[in-house]
Amino acid sequence: MMTKFPHLRQDFAASLVVFLVALPLCVGVAVASGVPAELGLVTGIVGGLVTGFMRGSSLQVSGPAAGLTVLVFEAVNEFGLPALGVIVLSAGVLQLAMGALKLGRWFRAISVSVVEGMLAGIGLVLIAGQLYSAAGLKAPTSGIDKILGLPGAALDALGSTTALASLAVGAGTVAVMVLWKKLPKKAQTVPGALAAVLLATLVTQVFGLSIATVEVNGLLASIQPPGTEAFGELANPAIFGTILAFTLIASAESLFSAAAVDRLHDGPRTEYDKELMAQGAGNAVCGALGALPMTAVIVRSSANVQAGAKTKASRIMHGVWLLLFAALLPSTLALIPLPALAGILVHAGFKLIPFREIVSLWRGHRGEALILVVTAVSIVAVNMFEGVLIGLALSVAKTAWEASHLKLEIVDKGAGPIQAHLSGNATFLRLPKILDSLESLPQDRPVELDLSGLHHLDHACRTALENWAARHSAVGTEPVRVTEPEPVKATTP
Question: pTM for this structure?
Fold first, then answer.
């Protein structure tokens, strides 16, 4: 047996660690998304038993992610819970198609600043929303209202003993998770999130605190495959923007996670197109079951690698343990206090905000830092999808601006013609600056315009330069002498 499965012992141990990390996160993400807690477990199970079997990234673990919480909450709020399955199923089919068309590698071309800005925006909205949950209060719907309403919520909480007790449990959960990392390695065998939830549950039960706990519906009762009415939502054009957002964000998060996991181990590298198809298959199954969308999750994946996993068997087994828990012990979920889950997600949201990256980008690449901040602020102020589109548009604009780098050098020896040398890429983006410089040249002197250093000269620039040369020559001086760019030589394959 051991010769057939040489890494079974390591994978078995790692699967238990990943299961213990995944359990509170699956439940917490579901509750924060506004869906039954069991649906988070269903997505975790599918992540292990469906995506886990498929090729792509061997040590990466998939399941419900804090990064999609805000988007799922918005979708359920706008289209209703039955439509969630249709959205997730459609996103899964799109991911399968993109993987089949070998588009997975193109996600690596997305600016890292946009992705980190997206995660920062999600983190801010997640933290703000979960602070209300920690106090047992109802959070406003939009991201900006969540943040602006916090001072008023704090005043409401201060006037309520129940809210203060609830906040204390949430704050205690965060404190345990932060301090857990400082304990000896042996103690950290039990994941911090699980330890924090267990302690919060114990305190709530021992002191008889009247704090809201997880509502349990039962696994089979919670699974609601989308019906005809739910598919009827596809007639609403607004749903397609949400499907596209789910697809792009889940895919980007999964493939960026895969790149990060590859840096943690020396095993086989990720096959990006196959990983995208594996995520698509998982999301298609989750959608058919009416469950939450899945992505690869860096917290679970890094726990898997650090626990010594060698093959995909560990992530498959973690799905088995989640299934056994959901089938045999679902009633234990009813003991978990909601502020404890809010605390876990506040901690997760804080980790989504890349503080160090913002500082280092500001020192070396201020344009990238600006894209990150604008993307995050846009997600908070508008919504997830439009915020990401704003970030992508800024990134493309910045790249276009840099690609149009142009240098104009004026050489005036006092006698003879003035020499103007243009080098780089002459595009319409830099046209105003070129013309300002050329039009400032003396009208009574001959000019030699050397374009031989240009790599690219677009039609708008060529026309504008020809018009300037004609105007400059019209006042009685010698015609402007133009040296054309070198033609690009064809190369034989």
Answer: 0.80
